[in-house]
């Protein structure tokens, strides 16, 4: 399990209404995602988890620009 921390994660726009966006990403990436405060927990196959970490870190970089 990996953990990514960022204040942006608290915003509902990230996870979507009723976590709809997270559920879509879980299905698409084959991983489990959960938001706890400023943290995103990513669980699953290590290769898929690493891909998801890279994906979310890129999203964070774009959001910070």
Task: Explain this structure.
- The chain has a three-stranded antiparallel beta sheet.
- 51% of the residues lie in helices and 22% in strands.
- The longest helix has 19 residues, at 46-64.
- By secondary structure, the protein is of the alpha+beta class.
- The protein is built from three helices and three strands.
- This is Phosphate starvation-inducible protein PhoH.
Order of helices and strands: EHHEEH
Task: Assign an overall shape.
Answer: globular
> So, the CATH homologous superfamily?
K Homology domain, type 1
CATH topology: Ribosomal Protein S8, Chain: A, domain 1
- Rg value: 11 Å
pLDDT average, as an integer? 83
Multimeric status of the protein: single chain
By helix and strand content, what is the structural category?
A: alpha+beta
The poorly predicted ranges are: none
**Topology, number of strands:** 3
Distance between the termini: 28 Å
Architecture per CATH nomenclature, i.e. the level-2 architecture: 2-Layer Sandwich
Strand order of the largest sheet: 1-3-2
Q: Number of DSSP helices?
A: 3
Count of discrete domains:
1
Summarize the main sheet.
Answer: 3 strands, antiparallel
Strand content: 15-25%
CATH class: Alpha Beta
Q: Helix fraction?
A: 40-55%
Protein name: Phosphate starvation-inducible protein PhoH
Organism: marine sediment metagenome
């Amino acid at each position: 399990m990996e953990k990514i921390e960022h204040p942006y994660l608290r915003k509902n726009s990230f996870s979507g209404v009723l976590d709809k966006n997270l559920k879509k990403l879980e299905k698409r990436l084959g991983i489990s995602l959960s938001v706890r405060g400023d943290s995103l927990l990513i669980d699953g196959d290590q290769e898929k988890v690493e891909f998801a970490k890279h994906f979310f870190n890129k999203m964070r970089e774009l959001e910070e620009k």
